[in-house]
Amino acid sequence: FQHYATLSSQRSHLHEMNIYRDSLMMVSDPGSFRYRIHLSYKLMGNGKMDEARAILDELLEEVGKDTPLYAETAYAYGYFYRLNKDPETGKKYFMLSAIADAKSAVKENASFHTLALMYYDQGDLSRAFKYTQAAIEDAVFSNVQFRTTQMSKFYSIINSIYQAKEAKSKSKLQHYLILISVLSLFLVLLFIYVYQQIHKLYRIKEELSRTNGRLMQLNDELHEKNTQLTDSNIIKEQYASLTLGLLKQVLRPLFDVYRQTGGLPKIAEQTGAEPTDRRVIQTVEIHVDDGERTG
User: For residue 245, what are the CA distances in angstroms to 177, 242, 250, 294?
Assistant: First the structure.
């Protein structure tokens, strides 16, 4: 009832809880676990946090771990830290309480419910949904009607929100899958294009290699032709030199006879050539003499 009254936050329930707690404390042994655990809640309700913490520290040292009493003490610790605005440490002790209840086979527990509410307030819907399911299963199993009713209302709210979030997540996942598919197709097309370009470059390289080989072959043939032409020119020069030498040997005696007869001027005088013709004959005579001296 204390857990239900705390979560409901209704003043009437809180007032009834305080009355029941005081009644139990009046008939309980002040040194008993039950008396001290109720006293810690009463001190926390009155704002005496240090005194409540001291009692909880004593109880946590006395009770055995993973027992129902340990689960109650850990839950009280979680409630203490939740009041002190330290939700992370509070969640730690609520989890320890839930673990102890699970190991003790206690199905009627409040830790799952409280953890579900805390994670829901923090916006962690996934964990809140899981803890809510666990709390409902335990409440149904233990046949606690008020907790089953309360958790069912909360479950309907968180389930609708969780399902909406899951649907949104699935929609995002579908969009990402479509995007990945498009990118994959683009990469495949890009790979095909690059492969074709590489193959084309390879063919061009082969063609250039063959062309270069052909050019080298033509260059060698041209060099060979030039060598042959050079040899031919040398032979022609040698033949021309020999021919001129032979002509000189043949013509020299003729020049000697020609001079002995007086040359062209003498012949022109004897034949009665005109003065102009005689000057031309003299010019030819000079060239003949020069050619003979050069030879």
Answer: 100, 5, 9, 12
HEC readout, the chain: CHHHHHHHCCHHHHHHHHHHHHHHHHHCCCCCHHHHHHHHHHHHHCCCHHHHHHHHHHHHHHCCCCCHHHHHHHHHHHHHHHHCCCHHHHHHHHHHHHHHHHHCCCCCCCHHHHHHHHHHHCCCHHHHHHHHHHHHHHHHHHCCHHHHHHHHHHHHHHHHHHHHHHHHHHHHHHHHHHHHHHHHHHHHHHHHHHHHHHHHHHHHHHHHHHHHHHHHHHHHHHHHHHHHHHHHHHHHHHHHHHHHHHHHHHHHHHHHHHHHCCHHHHHHHHHCCCHHHHHHHHHHHHHHHHHHHHC
CA distances to 35, 90, 102 from 121, rounded to whole Å, are 32, 14, 25
pLDDT band at 269 (very low <50, low <70, confident <90, very high): low
Highest average pLDDT, of 3-17, 98-112, 194-208, comes from 194-208
Nearest one of 157, 107, 104 to 132, comparing CA atoms: 157
Mean pLDDT of 124-133: 82
Q: Is the pTM of this model over 0.90?
A: no
| Closest-CA residue to 120 (of 109, 108, 133, 107) | 133
